[in-house]
Amino acid sequence: MKKTLVIIGATVLLSAYASEQVQRPAPYRQFKGDYTIYSGDLDDQQAPTGNDRKLSFIIEGQAAKNIFNAMPPDDKETCSGEKGARSRRKGNVWCTFNPGNGYTCYFGFDLKTGKSIAGGIC
C-alpha cells in the first residue's frame, strides 16, 4: 500500500512539474550558436588576459530569426551588398538577414565589468 501511495505521489508531482513547464508564457528555447572569449577588439582579437576578457555570441537559424523579428524596424543601411539583405540593431544587439546565409544575431559582454558590448562588426 505504501509503495502504491509513493508511486501515485511521485506521478502527481511529475505531472505538476511537466504541466508547469508547458504552460510557461515565455518558455526558454534551445538555439544554435557559437561564442568566443577574447581580449582586444573584435576586429583584432587576442587571447583573453587577466585584465581584458570579453565574450561575443553569434546565434543563427530560427532563434536569430525570432530575435530579428522582435526588434523592428530595419536599419536604413546594411553591411552586405547582397540584394535582399536586411539589418536590425538595438543597442549592442545586432541581427542580419542575408538571402544566402539566413538569419544571424550578434551580442557581447565585457566580462570584467559585466557591461553589454557589441558582439559583431560590420
TrEMBL record:
Residues 1-18 form the signal peptide. Keywords: Signal. This is DUF3617 family protein. The lineage of its organism: Bacteria, Pseudomonadati, Pseudomonadota, Betaproteobacteria, Burkholderiales.
